[in-house]
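Field reference: "sequence" (input) and "structure" (output). Example, Response regulator transcription factor:
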Amino acid sequence: MSAPLRVLVADDHPVFREGFAALLAGIDAVEVVGTAASGLEALELADRLVPDVVVMDVQMPGLDGIEATRRLLAAHPGTGVVVLTMSEEDGTLVDALRAGARGYLLKGAEPAEVVRAITTVAAGGVVFGAVLAGRVADFLAQGASGAGRAEEVFGMLTAREREVLDLVAAGLSNGQIAARLYLSQKTVRNHVHAILSKLPAVDRAEAIIRARDAGLGR
């Protein structure tokens, strides 16, 4: 009999995190080795516990799930990451793919679908929910989406800065961006300042024009 898959669950919402961990704990093929409430905690636990699979939320305080996935896989390339999120946005999906996630499911997925994703990813496979499968196929077929063009044009920016620039280009205020990304307004202001310095752009309006020209803000 094979050993159960060692799974780490990372989500900043305690009710969902503990409920999801309890659901997985009831499955013979899975052993929940730990839970994390942030991206940084996920990295710390992954270093210590070396799970087979990490189920990663996207929007978490401090270090978001996309950047946490990127860093985790740089340190532990053999670990599988399944992103489990509320977001159906193409930009988030593309970022998860680029970060190295091999699974992407919405939080409304059936338990059987989640377990199937975990076992598939642990075996080296790739799995995406039925709702997202068509978008993944389009992304892989095209090889160059709006997000890809933005990454090329704004290669001087970090992934988080491009995410903030995308929301700036969509017309959101710093307060709205902070709420959307679960960041403080001070952190958003710092990101915007860094973006204007790196582009360089004289003001927010110029940054918006250049971002929309590259396909952001849609």
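Strands lie at 5-10, 30-36, 53-56, 80-85, 103-106, 127-128.
The longest strand covers residues 30-36.
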